[in-house]
Amino acid sequence: MPLKFNISTPNLAKLIKLHLGPEILKNNNAWEILESPLSGRGIFAVRDIDAGEVILSDIALTTGPTSTSHQHICCVCYKTLEDIDRDIQCKNGCSLPLCELCSNGSSHSTECELFRRWKPKEPTQIIPQLLRFVSIVRCLFLGDTQRKLLLALQANNDKYYANELQKVAQCFANFPSDREMLEYFQYSIAAFNTNAFEGSCDRQQMENRGRVRALFPLASLLNHQCTPNADHYFDSPETLVIIATRPISKGEEIVTSYTKLLWSTLMRKMFLKMTKHFECCCPRCVDPSENGTYLSALFCRQQGCKGIMIPVQTKTLQPDWRCLTCESVFPHSKMARYQDFALNTINNRINACSISDMITFINDMCPRFCPPSNYVLVEAKLNVIWRMSRATTEVFTEEQLKCKDRYRAELLELLEKLGAGECTLKKLITEERL
């Protein structure tokens, strides 16, 4: 089968339903696959859908561990490996981390044999590139239906994707040189980087949960909007659930966001251009105020003015900025340096400060150089809420707890203005059960 499987939309829908199977489809019938005015194909509601309702469940073509976790996880069951006294790498020498149960099982045997045949140069080390490559290797073992679905997915070409394969090859002494296999690996990497979902394996656990990246053929058809009507979560490493964040009318396209909801317009546009190769022109992107949230806002640089500046228009990645008070205009180059200063200053604090120090920094220092609505400061407040909600040895004063509540109220107001509905971020902020 040639790389890139051209298939009509009706036949793709049939193939996806064959992949899901009748048991999954039995209660999974609120959607249909049609041509989309946004981009190629899309998923549309066949009936009215309520906010919070499950729209669909999708089964992964293949899964694998991420390479960004602070803790090692088993490459088969994705359990967090916490026992530092035990050798967590495969006892057969493929170099991948495994839990005790999976180390003695057969689920890992085929990929283990491949890795050992290719001879890892550092068999006693856990290499992030190899963890990320596990999901790509598993594409070799797909059945006919699943392989057709893989090759029907959009796979954006990017020089960084080619570098990813080269870095993996350098980790082995005997990496395959077969052209057909290398092209298949390259396509699989591009398909994963274009379509994969990353998330926590178990939505019931908030601490020490493993993270997985997986390729879902149906969910990959969801198109992007910066204020979406749907969100997702992993119900298991192999199952993705799409839920409605607000009411969706029959015939309406079901859309999700490829970016973080609370990023500024310029940040979202840059991310989408660099990683997804398209420019978003949704209603939020063409509104300089972003539904009145002013997430992009910076302080005016005109001496004596205390106003805020926003991009004049958002159809370019380098717009001029205009003050809403004095109407002074500054070039993007100057405002970008100012934005980078704010971003670096706050991020450096986030990475180094205790929670108490971070609260002091947000309340006392940030207002001097960053409007309270700016997305960088918003992210800092979100970080404080998240850290205070987790287990910690820090003891907080009543005033600090009030700050947390105030940050929470501010973020919920932003989500309300954006029309984000019952999104996952809202549940995390309010500490609701996912």
Automatic annotation (TrEMBL):
Signal peptide (from-to)? none
Q: InterPro entries, per this entry?
A: SET_dom (IPR001214), SET_dom_sf (IPR046341), SET_SmydA-8 (IPR053010)
Q: Fetch the Pfam families from UniProt.
A: SET
| Xref: Gene3D superfamilies | 1.10.220.160, 6.10.140.2220, SET domain
All copies of domain SET, residue ranges: 29-259
Protein name, per record: SET domain-containing protein SmydA-8 isoform X3
Q: Which species does the entry assign this protein to?
A: Musca domestica (House fly)
Q: Which gene encodes it?
A: LOC101893262
